[in-house]
Recover the amino acids of this structure.
């Protein structure tokens, strides 16, 4: 799996997890979803993604988006 797909998978899992936590634990977990969305927006403008940096440090091979 490439870095690009790893980041997309991670973002999708985090959104679903935050929505499940919002539904079953507390409505305040909606702020977790807001944080994920804001991070996706800022990384689209700046090209910096903290998750990509972590995956890169773990040795996931680069894809075409995060070079």
């Amino acid at each position: 799996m490439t870095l690009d797909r790893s980041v997309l998978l991670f973002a999708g899992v985090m959104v679903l997890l935050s929505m499940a936590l919002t539904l079953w634990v507390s409505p305040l977990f909606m702020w977790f979803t807001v944080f994920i969305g804001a991070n996706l927006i800022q990384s689209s403008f700046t090209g910096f993604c903290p998750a990509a940096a972590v995956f890169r440090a773990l040795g996931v091979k680069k894809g075409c988006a995060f070079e």
Residues 3-57 form one domain. The chain has a mean pLDDT of 92.
